[in-house]
Amino acid sequence: MMSAVRRPARAASASTRREAQRGIYVEVEALIAGLAAALIAVVFAVIAFGGMSVPIWTDWEWGHWSIGMVSVSAVVVLGTVAAGIGYWRSRRLRGQEWRLELPSWKFMLDAVVVAIVHTALGALATAVLLFVVQLAFRRLTIDPVSASIGCAVVTGLAAYMLYLAVSRLNTVSLSQRMFLFVGVGLLTAMATSTDPVWWRYQISVLGAYGNRPSISFNAILIVAGILVTTFALYVDRDIRNLHAARVIRYRLAAPMVSILFIAMGVALAGIGLVPVNVSVMAHNVFAIGLSAIFGILMLISPIALRGMPLPFFLATLGSLVLLSGATWLFYGPGLLPLTNYELIAFGVLFAWITMFVRFLAAMLATRGADAALAQPVREPRATTETVRVDHDASGTDVRADVDAEVDAAAEGEADAESPSPQPHIMPLPGDVPPRPPLPNPHDTGLRR
Q1: Residues 6+ apart with CB under 8 A from 39
Q2: How many domains does the chain have?
Q3: Is 134 found in the same domain as 192?
Q4: 366 and 339 in one domain?
């Protein structure tokens, strides 16, 4: 008897189980990071408050502590450590393996920038939250025990969320956080400016007063520029993957677009590094250079990014027309104020970047689905049993082949792991006569 039975593949492979286990490890590590940050923050708060009741939020003056000041300081220090460790520990997760191929200096720079940006976003969110809470509870002071516990809770939650945020980072999530960071940061700088009529001049004047709101405004621009520079790594990886999948036609698209992103990041950081009160000429060079580089990127995108969907190029054309029209209205007849022109330029820039990376992510997901559907489906193989019966009734061998096909279909991991049921064979009684031999068709019954 000859048989060949193919066992079905398991639904959950070993690599999938390891990936799920790593996801659990990330949650556990984030929880540990949050608890550790909370313990350190409560000790710092007890020492800073010194047994005195403190307000929720107050002006930043050294020696006059508040819950907001202690919490933001703790989030800046402990959040940076938690985000850096989380980003380093997650480099072997699915979708993050490409970071293992980066050179050491580039990986360290990427990790530092990602940690700083996420920490800045966490500190900004903490400050805004506690500032709003103080407006809800005006003239309220809290005892030192409750204030210390509040600082521990806020810092622990921030460290926990930062650890998880950097562990599952991709191009789309990074662009969303960059857009959120720049938008919330600019609105905060506008709301806290010491000049209530700053809008009569330009946005850049927010960083020219030399006080804390101006310093925070310039710091937001610098961090945003560094983030755009680091963002070039993710864009370069996605474009290379699309070129390997024969979606993007030209191989030089990845380095060309990434270089332009790096140049835009340098120009954006330069706007914050050189405010208008330091050098008007240098500040304008960085600002005009940012608009020019962005315009070049949109102009070459139909050629460099050939293979992208038509709606992307139509949206790019609309953005270019809007930016060109705003530039003409400002420099030409002067119908557009400088503040409005800068707001339009910033909005078009970050909206186009967000749209661009979402199209890249959608095309990568589509290519992955097409590749999965293109794989051949393995049908269950049948098993053939051949039984040979020889009879020697008249000196002639008689062979009868009996073919029995057995479908080997077992779906699911439970069916694959469970032992297959054995066939039940009814034993024959001993008094049953043997089966008579089959007649020979060549035997006519006549004998010489």
Answers
A1: 152
A2: 2
A3: no
A4: yes
Question: Does residue 202 fall inside a structural domain?
Answer: yes
Whole-number Å distance between alpha carbons of 217 and 223: 10
Separation between Cα atoms, residue 393 and residue 437, nearest integer Å: 7
350 and 285 within one domain: yes
Report residue 409 as tokens: 């279909």
Please check whether residue 66 lies inside any domain of the structure.
yes
* Same domain (yes/no): 243, 178: yes
Determine phi and psi for 257, rounding to 5 degrees: -70, -40
Of the residues 320, 342, 370, the one at which a domain ends: 370
What separation in angstroms does the CA of 65 have from each of 45, 46, 172? Answer: 9, 11, 38
191 and 129 inside one domain: no
Q: Which residue range is the domain that position 143 belongs to? A: 22-169
pLDDT in tens, the chain (448 residues): 444 444 444 544 666 666 667 778 888 999 999 999 999 999 999 999 988 889 998 876 666 789 999 999 999 999 999 999 988 888 777 767 777 777 787 788 878 888 888 898 888 889 888 988 988 888 888 999 999 999 999 999 999 999 998 887 877 888 888 888 888 888 888 888 888 888 888 888 888 887 888 888 898 888 888 888 888 888 888 898 888 888 888 888 888 999 999 999 999 999 999 998 888 899 889 988 998 999 999 999 988 888 888 999 999 999 999 988 988 988 888 788 888 888 888 889 888 988 998 888 888 887 655 554 455 544 444 443 443 444 444 444 433 343 433 344 444 444 444 444 444 455 545 555 566 666 666 665 555 4
Residues 284, 209 share a domain: yes
